[in-house]
Amino acid sequence: MAVLVRISATGMDQATYDQMAPGLHELVKKQPGFIIHIAYPTPNGFGIGEVWESQAQQEAWFNANVKPKLPDSSAMSTEYIQLHAVVQP
């Protein structure tokens, strides 16, 4: 079943996200298992939410494409939540 991935990026600001995101957005759209990506400011930084068909697909994508571009991945925490239902248009 699908998984919700919640990433908290402590200390990340919108400018940093906006600098990294455009190239990654185009790549992630083509990834097997990718369903949706959202991003939003939080009191401590930036939040990212994604839905994937599996945790393994997201982890492979993140480790290969995102992690190498991060200035400090230690300031990030990731939570995986197994979903019961995903409704798409």
3D architecture notes:
By secondary structure, the protein is an alpha+beta fold. The chain has one domain: Alpha-Beta Plaits. It is 30% helix and 36% strand. The chain has 2 helices and 4 strands. A 4-stranded antiparallel sheet has the order 2-3-1-4. The mean pLDDT is 92.
In short:
30% of the residues lie in helices and 36% in strands.
Q: Key terms for this structure?
A:
globular, Alpha-Beta Plaits, 4-stranded antiparallel β-sheet, alpha+beta, about 30% helix, 4 strands, about 90 residues
Write the layout of secondary structure elements.
Elements: E1 3-10, H1 14-28, E2 34-42, E3 45-52, H2 55-66, E4 76-82
Antiparallel strand pairs: 1-3, 1-4, 2-3
Secondary-structure element sequence?
EHEEHE
Globally, the shape reads globular
The name CATH uses for the topology is Alpha-Beta Plaits
**Under the CATH scheme, which class?**
Alpha Beta
Helix content: 25-40%
Roughly how many Å apart are the termini?
18 Å
